Every structure is written in C-alpha cells, then in structure tokens.
Amino acid sequence: MAVGGVSGSALRVIPVFPGQGSQTVGMGRDLAANVPAVRELFERSNAVLGFDLLELQRTGPDERLRETLYSQPAIFATNLALYYALGDALHPVASAGHSFGEVCSLTIAGALSYEDALHIVDERGKAMQHAAELTPGGMSAVRPRCRQNRAGAEQSDRQRREIFPSRHARSSPADRRAGCVHSGGGGSRSGNSRRGFAQAVHALQQ
Q1: Residues 171, 201, 137, CA angle at the centre, nearest 5°?
Q2: Fewer CB atoms inside 10 A, N or C side of the chain?
C-alpha cells in the first residue's frame, strides 16, 4: 500500500492499493505477530478461503504464492492488514487501487464488507487461474520511449532476426518500436516470451 499526501494546512491522505505481482513470501508475518487486529483479520480470511492464508504467506513456497488463486487473496488481505494496522492514524480523503486493489479501496470506503470483498477476490483469482491454465499465453509491455543499453539493443536485434529471418538487416520503424517490447508471464504462469514478442510486433505493424 502506498500513501500519498496533498500539500496544505493539514495532511490529506490518499492510500493506493497494489494488485497482483506485489506478493512476496513473508508478507504480513510481522504485522500478524504484533498487531491483534491483523491476526483477527487473517483468521477471518481463513474462514472465507478454507485454508490458512497467513501460513502460506509465512512459508510459501514462492511458486505457490505466485499462483493467481493464492496471490490475489494474499495481497488483498495484506493490503487491508497494513491499512487497519495504522488504526486511527489514517483519515483518507480518497483511495484508489490497481487491478483488484480497487476492491481494497471499496472495502475501506465501506461499500463492501471484508468477507464479501475477499470472496470476490477469491473467485476472481480462481477464474483467472483456470483461464490461464486453459489458454497459456504471454503479456507484453510496449515502452515507446524506452532507453536500452547496448546489450539490450543487441538482444532485441537477435530476436528480430529470429522472428523475421527474411527481412533486410536494416530495421524498420515498427521493428525499432518492437525493440522496446518486454514480454513476461500471463495469468499465473510464464508464457512463451518469443510468441508474446512476435504478437506485439504484429500488432505494431497493423
């Protein structure tokens, strides 16, 4: 959770909750050990999810915690644990969230109960996990103004030659833009980065 302030006579707080990808083994452990309200929150989580969420976060393994059906409830619970651990110290004037972090924002606003919100996130994570297993894929981020070092540029050139073996050595504008494509995992598992790169190049050429 990130907390931003707006300048003025008094601090105005706007918490922003992260989504998937911010998980790490051990998150929430210290809070649960020291803050009774956080321990209670994780106990409530276990009742909704049907497994010991805090134990998973304590011990992992990392591969399991990265799976969507576990990472989303874990991040949601930890987001809210961090928020509630601060108690009366926060009086937000607004809140926001990235991806399912929006559900955290709705929860602290009182639009959803903690249990209902966690149930939504749990079902969302299971659905995304199922979709990822049915159709493995990749994700690409296009950075039109990225700055690459020499090694990164050479790697992009090699990838372009592998994908377009019949093309001339000189790169086209679309190829140069494709040099700023970085492929990663889709859903809960790593996808085929070469396929993701090729798909991104194809999209840029349309």
Answers
A1: 150
A2: C
pLDDT band, very low/low/confident/very high, at 86 (cuts 50, 70, 90): confident
Q: Which helix (H) or strand (E) holds 97?
A: strand 96-97
* pTM of structure: 0.66
pLDDT of 170: 44
Residue that the structure tokens 């998973």 belong to: 56
User: Would the CA dihedral through 147, 152, 157, 162 be positive or negative?
Assistant: negative
The candidate with the shortest Cα–Cα distance to 19, out of 72, 57, 85, is: 72
Report the b/e string of 80-117 with b at 16+ CB within 10 A.
Answer: bbbbbbeeeebebeebebbebbebbbbbbeeebebeeb
Helix (H/G/I), strand (E/B), else coil: 13 = strand
